[in-house]
Amino acid sequence: MNSKVFMVARILLGLFVLTFGLNKFFGFIPFGEMPEAAISYFTGLGPTHLLKLVGVIEILAGLAFILNKYGSLMALILMSVSVNAVLFHATLAPDDIWGALLLLVLNIVVLIGYKDRYKEILRP
After folding, report:
1. CB 43 within 8 A of CB 92
2. Pairwise CA distance, residues 35 & 72, whole Å
3. How many CB atoms are closer than 10 A to CB 57?
4. Domain range spanning residue 113?
């Protein structure tokens, strides 16, 4: 992969997840209208503080991508967040799926950019 394309994707992904991770703590991006099923889902998650943990992961991943430190590890960890965001939107709030799809695509691009670092764990 072209190093400039990888750098742009890495920094965009970093800014994207850093912004949404900080939003989980400070709430500066308001939520729009959500379907009833999505509201029920978040009502159930609220007392568990799981979204705060996801916010911490997003903040750490964003900083890792922007600073280019431990990015390959954070790209793997962030993949679970990306897949869950797409599945959430696909099943409960399909009108707003574009941000989650962008997150997943950027995460895949960054994973491909770090592919040389995964050779040992992917070796047969």
Report:
1. no
2. 35
3. 18
4. 3-122
